[in-house]
Each structure stands twice: as structure tokens, then as C-alpha cells.
Amino acid sequence: MNILGRLGGALLGGSFAVFGYGAVRDPAALAKLAGPALEEIRKVVPLPKDDELLVRVNGAVQTGAGAALAIGLFPRTSALALAGSLIPTTYAGHPFWTIEDPAQRKAQRTQFLKNAAMLGGLLVVAGAGRKGAASGTGISAG
Predict the structure, then answer these.
(1) Distance (Å, rounded) from C-alpha 121 to C-alpha 69?
(2) I need a labelling partner for 86 at 20 to 30 A (CA). Which of 21, 59, 113, 141 fits?
């Protein structure tokens, strides 16, 4: 694995591991923030009513898959797990389209777009083929 692949995996995966661990340890504030979005999702997906449990489960996925990606273990699988986790996290955590205050709306839009960029990076890793891929990163060298 080349140095850029190692660094990229460590930065991308490590960020998820840290944020996920925080959600597992202290889910209350995130559960409150996610509550309205979870209610919307429950209209089409049968989720448990315990918002803190859902935040903890999502955090555990991010912690485990983030750590795996950070060390180059199953990078494509880890990236897919993180991508699947990031979509509801972004929808629930950064609904800038619902915010009236211009400054808060701009801040939440920035966070939404940051998550979209992270999702893009995860999709690059998940979609990279094995042939010609940088060892352990899933990212094509060409």
C-alpha cells in the first residue's frame, strides 16, 4: 500500500471511528437532533422507537467500519458500511433546508456538503476494482 493510500484511509476511517465512538458513549444530544428525521423514516421503515439505541447502533457501525478502513482492513466493505451509515446521519443531522436563520442554515449546509464529500470518498473506495488498485485502499492507481 502506498503512503497516500495509507494516509487517506487513516484520515477518512479515523474520522468516522472518532465520531462514531462519541455517538456510542453519549447518544442523547444526537438522538434529540435525529428524532424528527427518524419519525419521518419510521413512516416507511419499521425502526425501533428508541432513538438513543439507533444512534448507538449507527455509532457502533461507524466506529468499527471506520477503524477497519483506517487500518486498511476490508476497505471496500468498510466503505460501503460507512456510506450506508452516513446517508441517514447526514439527513437527520444537517437538514439545512428546514432552517430559517441564514447563518445557521449556511453552517448546516456546509456540514451537509462536508458529509457529501466524505460520502464521495467512500464511494470511490467502495467502487474501486481490485485489479490495479492500490494495495489495501481500494483506490485505483490510474
Answers:
(1) 12
(2) 141
Q: Which residue has the higher pLDDT, 9 or 78?
A: 78
Helix, coil or strand: residue 125: helix
The one-letter code for the residue type at 82 is L
> Mean per-residue pLDDT for 86-100?
93
Could you give the CA distance from residue 24 to residue 8 in angstroms, rounded to a whole number?
24
How far apart, in whole angstroms, are the C-alpha atoms of residue 121 and residue 136?
15
d(CA 2, CA 17): 22
d(CA 113, CA 115): 5
- Bridge partners of 140? 133
Q: How many Å apart are CA 78 and CA 83, to the nearest integer?
A: 9
Please tell me whether residue 72 adopts helix, strand or coil conformation: coil
Q: What pLDDT digit, counting tens, does each position of 122-141 carry? A: 999 898 766 544 444 544 44
d(CA 132, CA 128) in angstroms, rounded, equals 9
By CB neighbour count within 10 A (0-12 exposed, 13-18 middle, 19+ buried), where does 15 fall?
Answer: middle
Is 96 within 8 Å of 113 (Cβ atoms)?
A: no
